[in-house]
Amino acid sequence: MELALSLGDTPKPFSFLDKATKMPNKDLGFCIALGNGLSKEMKNHSGSSSSHENERSSLRVSSSDPPLQLDLLPFSPVPRTQQPPPPSQLRIPWLSDTLGIERASSDGQTRRLDVSRLFPAEVQAVEEAEDGTALSSPNSSASSFQMDFSIRNFNMGRNKREHELGDAERTSSRASDDDENGSTRKKLRLSKDQSAFLEESFKEHPTLNPKQKLALAKQLNLRARQVEVWFQNRRARTKLKQTEVDYEYLKRCCETLTDENRRLQKELQELRALKSSQPFYMQLPATTLTMCPSCERVATNTNSSSTAAAAATTGNQTTSTTTTTTTTTTNNSTSTATIPIALSLLSQVHLPQAQAHKTAS
DNA sequence: CGGGTCAATCCGGGAG
DNA sequence: CTCCCGGATTGACCCG
Fold first, then answer.
1. What own/partner pairs with CB < 8 Å and gap ≥ 24 does A127-136 have?
2. Model pLDDT for residues A241-285, shown as the tens digit of each residue
3. Residue A240 reports pLDDT greater than 80
4. What does DSSP say about strands A325-327 and A288-291: parallel, antiparallel, or unpaired?
5. Which stretches are tagged as biased composition: Low complexity (predicted)?
6. Residue A117: strand, helix, or coil
């Protein structure tokens, strides 16, 4: 069973499956591709496939046999084109032609979070800092205070505890964060606006280039390092969530297949019992089942002999891996008669690969 | 008080 | 060597 699993935030989920890479949402999509064996079995239970013994064969199979691709989009159920627009006041810096936030003020049509209008002094300080070092520098007390001021304004609408804390307390807390007493690490909580803005940015670009990082840091009045850390942690959280989702899905998939396997095993036993109780059918010639590679339906050829079927089998397997020829015989090799009805049912039996090989041979 | 969350740090590995 | 990233971990803060 070929099973490829991809996390949506990877730019190329399946390097070997071109069709599976076409995901509607490359940011947060969840894509599972079930390869040859499983995909066929899940479609029509049309028998076993023995053509993916190694990775190379699975590559061939995957390219010729469309995998069953499941796109689960747990975090963004609506495709991006149908998603509601981001908060009106938020505009990702690199989505517009202008990069600087000052230029945004000249855009009267767009309602963006214009930090320069809100806190011109802070933006000036950040721009002077360039990479944010001035903000974190112990000597830059002015920058620290300005950052505290802006954070307080960003914090409008935060939880009540922070309101109860009061501006003075938080200011002193934040101020002590940047002073020379760097040994104690103070907890910094990003405001809701900052987090929302970063989230929107993350949806557009899970990874940042330095230019984007700087622009975002300027716009949010954060250090570039903070933006970088936030994106790193955000990617980690996304991956963790995806892992949980993948685990749950694969668990359900495994349970379903186990139940199906159990049911079909039981069915197979009943058919064997039926076959042994009706020796009349033992006189019939062997039946060859050939699977059509295009429609994946089983075509019965009751007149073909076993040797011809075997020859056709080898020929088909060398030319097309999607063609599966199954010659079913009884356990006693001298009596090659088969039960047509049973064969049509047996062709749908989903068995473990080893057992399927045993039956086919 | 314990558990959860999350920003921040440390460290190793890969790419240029 | 530098830069960036992922993974693991730490520590502050929040909440029931």
1. A127/A218, A130/A214, A131/A214, A131/A223, A131/A224, A132/A217, A132/A222, A132/A223, A132/A224, A132/A225, A132/A226, A133/A223, A135/A178, A135/A223, A136/A178, A136/A223, A136/A225
2. 888 788 888 888 999 999 999 999 999 999 999 988 876 655 555
3. yes
4. antiparallel
5. 62-81
6. helix
For position A279, what pLDDT does the model report?
65
Distance CA A231, CA A234 (A): 5
Task: State the nucleotide closest to A227 in CA–C1' terms.
Answer: B7
Whole-angstrom distance, CA of residue A232 vs CA of residue A345:
53
CA distance A81 to A133: 38
Q: Measured on CA atoms in the order A38, A39, A45, A47, is the torsion positive or negative?
A: negative
Structure-token match 């891996």, residue found: A321
The yes-or-no verdict on residue A91 having pLDDT over 70 is no
Residue at minimum CA to C1' distance from nucleotide C5: A232
pLDDT, residue A291, reads: 58
Q: A141-200, pLDDT tens digit by residue?
A: 333 333 333 333 333 333 333 433 333 333 333 333 333 344 566 677 888 888 888 888
Q: How many CB atoms lie within 10 A of CB A45?
A: 15
Half-sphere exposure of A226 (CA within 13 A, CB side): 22
Q: Which positions of chain C lie under 7 Å from any protein Cβ?
A: 3-8, 11-15
Q: Residues by CB within 7 Å of nucleic chain C, which ones?
A: A 159, 161-162, 165, 173, 184-187, 189, 207-208, 210, 228, 231-233, 235-236, 239
Rounded Cα–Cα distance for residues A123 and A34 (Å): 51
